[in-house]
Specification:
globular
Length: about 150
Amino acid sequence: MTSIEEKLNQVERMIRECDLDELGFAFAILNEIIIDNRATNDQIAEALNLKGLIVGGPAPCHTEYEEDETGLIYYLKSFNYNPRNSSVSLNIVNSFTDHDIRQPFTRENKPAFIKAYEILKNDLYDTLNEESKNNLLSFSAKYDKFKQEIF
């Protein structure tokens, strides 16, 4: 029997190899993890995050939600399982590029962007590598704009 961690590692390899035929199989593996009663919240969060990477990257055709082709819906679900996962928060923030914001589902979730940005900046900033810090800083103007729009 393959462990949940082994399955997650297998899917990560599939994503890195970017074999579109295999990504459908990867989605099935991730769905198995999500419903596995032995999976921890962190493992479920990682499985959902990986689903978002598949949809937001090489294979938006695998989304289970027609309103979202950026992976954001999976990142938001992942965030609910583990809001302290910097990878998930970065993926939420990165789902708000000028291209992605044209999607109504993304525009409706600006509060999630604000929350993820604030957690990264205020709580997890010291754990980020330089590339992630610079990436986060590149969204500071968008954060200010969204904050003004909402509050």
